[in-house]
Amino acid sequence: MTFYTAGNIIPALSRRDDIEEVMRDWESRYSTYITTSIFITTFNVNGRMPTHEDLPNWLTCDGASAPDFYVIGLQEMDLSPQAFLMNTSARHSGWQIVIQKSLPTSANYILVQEAHLVGILLMIYRRIDCEVRVENTAIDVEIVPTGFPLLGRMGNKGGVAISLQINDSYLCFVNSHFAAGQEELEKRNQDYREISQVRFPKSNKSLFDHDVIFWFGDMNFRLETNSNLSNDDFRRLCYDENAFRDMIVFDQLKKQKKLNHIFVDFKEPDILNFRPTYKYDPGTTRWDTSDKCRCPAWCDRILWWNRDGVNVRQKVYESVESVVFSDHKPVRSIFYVEVRHVDEAKRSACLEEAVREADRRANEALPQIELSQSEVDFGKVYFFQSASRTITIKNTGKTKISFSFDARPNRVALCEPWLSVTPPNSRLQPGASCTISLQILIDKAVAWTINGDEKLSEILVLRLHRGRHYFVTVSAYYQYSAFGSSFVNLIHMEKRKTSASELNLTYSPASLISAVVAGVPESVFRISEALKQNGLEKICFDDPSAHSEFIALRNALDTGKPKNLFEACKSAFSMYDTFLTLITSFKESIIPPALQMECLRAASDINSCWSCVEKFPVENRNMFIYFIGFVSELVKWNSTANSQMQLIADIIFKRPTGDGGCLQRLKFLETCVSGSREVSKNAPSISIHYQHDADLIVL
């Protein structure tokens, strides 16, 4: 909140922070407080659409009066292909109807705001007769997909956030779904750090510019099994509430939070007094009996953060075991939050005195801090593999301090796009410390700006309000990868391998081996041939893709070891997903932008399509012909491959799903896949380069 206006006092920009800090300290002089009740629940619904009869007592707590607000977060609301491709859902409105019917005295609640990202849905309801107001013009929404979305295919992980002004306090609600899998711990940490960078478009507020943050969802943190406690041991302990204290020490979220890797300064009870919420056989309260036999885990959580001086009290934190239609149990909590109401007349009176107080404080002892380190070297970093480090800031002075990481002169952004800082600002009492998390993540947009192995460096500016500036130097060495590179450069740079035996493959299209190895990047050839060797019919497009398997495959493709890619990754779908990620990550589109409109106009005629392809640069032409050959095989052998055609069409044009022309792109792809090059009189030849670019051979 800004405490001065053009009509009264306009202090110099350098003094604004000082005055605002004084006004925050004096908040009780010009504010009155009222307690509002907020019911928050999170539920992974496993793609199912229930009736309100399937949700007994979900939105009511014994002995609790009707809350002022209901905040409802769902995950996996919709797992249909359309939801993934278009970020639209037919179930969206259906869930609103079910929830409205499930609310106690539902006619007394109105929907304040909703936001969704694929299967992640966040809805906030307000009781009509509650004593607090919501400032409608200040409502702000943002979505953050995480992972490596393939163009328009959003994926079902990420977060949605809603910022509300309740009276004169600012509250933020975040519903998130982190990466699944026992081994995906670092990816979950990465998801947290990506979402924590959210900035709301209307207000430009960050998460930590709010008075209170409520963060909830299916965070997917698991219990770590070891030689002392097995899956069976945990299952037995789940029936003894007294054993939860022993179990929680193996909880990944608690351990990562204690290490200050995630959720620094967020709060949650030390001991959870409800059974793990995952994984159950749907329709029962029985632990998972499927072949995977998942270990129980507290995947579904509700945490909160509040700035100094804001009173937040948690009354209830529990699961709802009577709801059985999903493989998760809902978790719910009731909070009581003091929100402020500002008396404008009293505030104006305080403001004049606050200016004098700010001057007085500025003349007192200067704020002092101690940095744990001013140089942070990440060492080697890799494509789409996050790396994190922490630094500690300690207030060693006698006065409260405020600090922020600021953009360097002549720059808008706080830092380079490959680096993130969490939190970007904070306040510390004398003697208190704060842990700052630094994360490096090289995505395709960053990789396109890097040439080969390259040193990355950045200088962070830490501004101490009413004090000096500190500088933190961050460095790392990016390790060049086929991912995020130029396929044209790869074709010219890579040493060609023309022997199937070198690739440890027993199957390959005999007439094309030499052309493929020379005409497309080796990484493209290796992964596509491995998929065909393994059997394209084994790809199940509904399977999840593990980030750890992506990393293993990326390493195998970049280093050449192991030669058999299925030694690095056992999942056919993870390999297929990595293949599409590779194609998507290339700097160029397979179909050159200058010829895309011509291709769309030719989409209905096979000869016209191949006439367009003939005009492609040789590298694009070879990539297109090879990739279309792979897609033809995929459609031939996999009966459900047609579900992938729109996504693949958007990938070869490098255009997001859902924009204009998506149907014509699909038509062009289908025509090229269904039509035979041999029967098309205009079908182009495959041009290949052997060891020297000048030696052009046409097959």
UniProtKB/TrEMBL annotation:
- GO annotation, cellular component aspect: membrane
Q: Which residues form the signal peptide?
A: none
Family annotation (Gene3D superfamilies): Endonuclease/exonuclease/phosphatase, Immunoglobulins, Rho GTPase activation protein
Q: Name one GO biological process term.
A: phosphatidylinositol dephosphorylation
GO MF term list: phosphatidylinositol-4,5-bisphosphate 5-phosphatase activity
Q: Which residues cross the membrane?
A: none
- What Pfam families does the database record attribute to this sequence? Exo_endo_phos2, OCRL-like_ASH
Q: Inositol polyphosphate-related phosphatase domain: from which residue to which, for each copy?
A: 34-343
Q: State the PANTHER family in the record.
A: INOSITOL 5-PHOSPHATASE, TYPE II INOSITOL 1,4,5-TRISPHOSPHATE 5-PHOSPHATASE
Give the protein name, as stated in the record: BMA-OCRL-1
Q: Which organism is it from?
A: Brugia malayi
- Gene that encodes the chain: bma-ocrl-1.1
